[in-house]
């Protein structure tokens, strides 16, 4: 029997120490989806990652200290690729990128070390920056000026790759039009598409798994996949293609290295049976996008009944369609050749977060504890009680719930550890 995996209990402290040839990951902010998940995906093949402590990164109410974050970055060994959120370094995080009072020259001054990073270290920079969402953005002209400047850095080869993404584009948002204008004439190493929280996971996959790979995308409801999505302003089919390419896959119609099954509605039992059939033929990842921020309980219950959830290359159901597509594909890209203990543990974490918490626990927690009281000891005890009812969790191995918390004091996300049973 495998020993308790260090992936879920001790991986992050190890990543903070890093190794001489490790990559450096500077997350968008301190949320588990943007800090923990990209690091765990990046560690699947045994790579060490240097990641700042959560306290150094931004939250919903407090931006990262630019000087402290810059000092942390400056202290990292100049080995391995740098994967970085420009919004974290320039503004303090995703939330702050919408409302920061900084001028464009001030924001670019904070990013100046990245402009010369490759020249000084010989190591590549994989970066991303967002176009802010409406109506929160207070200075779109400033953000656009910064984006245009860093596209220029990519054109000069100072950034190996740059992803320009837009966040939560509700109807009427100018971001899709801004993105289309920026894409015209952008160099080949710049991608422009809707996304945010998933992008660092995708950049990590591109940096650590540069080998060619193909993916075929299948939808539970092909007709619905042609419709424009609420949060991205493009059809689901286009988003899947964007995220596949952004994770390092070539999309094909025939035989492929991976099948991405996208559950976007329809009969969940039929969908689960289809996934089971696909798994008999090859590698499969699943992105559940039928609803935003939660998985379909019946679909995942049927997959568990069929004992197929443990055979997936990756699963995602936690966020927007783009969030789920991107993290599932990034995980699947690095799952080939992954350490089997780390792979099983990451699948367990994804199931615990995307299915158990997002689909079951969150709604119960909201019924019992008002959102404004989620920082209380009562909320913590309630969270542990509610979540604990769904464990032990069997994926390949069996896991029990260790610790759990609400890091941003809200019900949207939790952070937790899992212990692998002997």
UniProtKB/TrEMBL annotation:
<feature type="signal peptide">
    <location>
        <begin position="1"/>
        <end position="22"/>
    </location>
</feature>
<dbReference type="Pfam" id="PF13552">
    <property type="entry name" value="DUF4127"/>
</dbReference>
<dbReference type="InterPro" id="IPR025394">
    <property type="entry name" value="DUF4127"/>
</dbReference>
<protein>
    <recommendedName>
        <fullName>DUF4127 family protein</fullName>
    </recommendedName>
</protein>
<keyword id="KW-0732">Signal</keyword>
């Amino acid at each position: 029997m495998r020993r308790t995996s260090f992936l879920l209990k001790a991986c992050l402290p190890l990543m903070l120490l890093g190794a001489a040839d490790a990559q450096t990951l500077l997350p968008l902010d301190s949320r588990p989806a943007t800090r923990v998940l990209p690091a765990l995906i990046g560690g699947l093949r045994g790579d060490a990652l240097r990641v700042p402590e959560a306290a150094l990164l931004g939250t919903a109410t407090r931006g990262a200290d630019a000087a402290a974050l810059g000092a942390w970055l400056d202290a990292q060994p100049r080995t391995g690729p740098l994967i970085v959120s420009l919004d974290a370094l320039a503004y303090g995080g995703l939330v702050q990128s919408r409302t920061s009072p900084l001028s464009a020259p001030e924001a670019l001054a904070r990013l100046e070390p990245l402009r010369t990073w490759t020249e000084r270290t010989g190591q590549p920079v994989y970066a991303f920056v967002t176009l802010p969402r409406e109506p929160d953005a207070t200075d779109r002209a400033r953000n656009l000026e910064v984006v245009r400047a860093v596209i220029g850095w990519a054109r000069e080869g100072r950034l190996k790759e740059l992803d320009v993404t837009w966040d939560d584009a509700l109807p009427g948002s100018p971001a899709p039009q801004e993105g289309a204008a920026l894409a015209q004439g952008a160099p080949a190493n710049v991608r422009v598409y809707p996304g945010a929280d998933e992008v660092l996971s995708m950049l990590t996959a591109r940096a650590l798994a540069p080998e060619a790979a193909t993916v075929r995308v299948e939808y539970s409801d092909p007709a619905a996949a042609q419709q424009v999505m609420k949060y991205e302003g493009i059809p689901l089919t286009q988003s899947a293609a964007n995220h596949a390419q952004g994770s390092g896959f070539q999309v094909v119609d025939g035989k492929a290295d991976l099948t991405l099954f996208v559950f976007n509605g329809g009969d969940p039992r039929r969908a689960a049976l289809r996934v089971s059939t696909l798994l008999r033929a090859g590698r499969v990842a699943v992105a559940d996008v039928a609803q935003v921020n939660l998985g379909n309980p019946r679909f995942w219950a049927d997959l568990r009944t069929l004992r197929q959830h443990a055979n997936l290359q990756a699963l995602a159901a936690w966020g927007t369609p783009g969030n789920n597509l991107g993290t599932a594909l990034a995980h699947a890209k690095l799952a080939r050749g992954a350490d089997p203990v780390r792979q099983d543990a990451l699948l367990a974490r994804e199931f615990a977060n995307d299915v158990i918490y997002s689909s079951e626990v969150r709604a119960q927690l909201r019924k019992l504890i008002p959102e404004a009281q989620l920082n209380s000891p009562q909320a913590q005890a309630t969270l542990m009680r509610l979540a604990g009812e769904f464990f032990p969790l069997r994926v390949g191995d069996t896991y029990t719930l260790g610790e759990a918390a609400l890091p941003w004091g809200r019900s949207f996300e939790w952070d937790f550890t899992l212990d692998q049973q002997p």
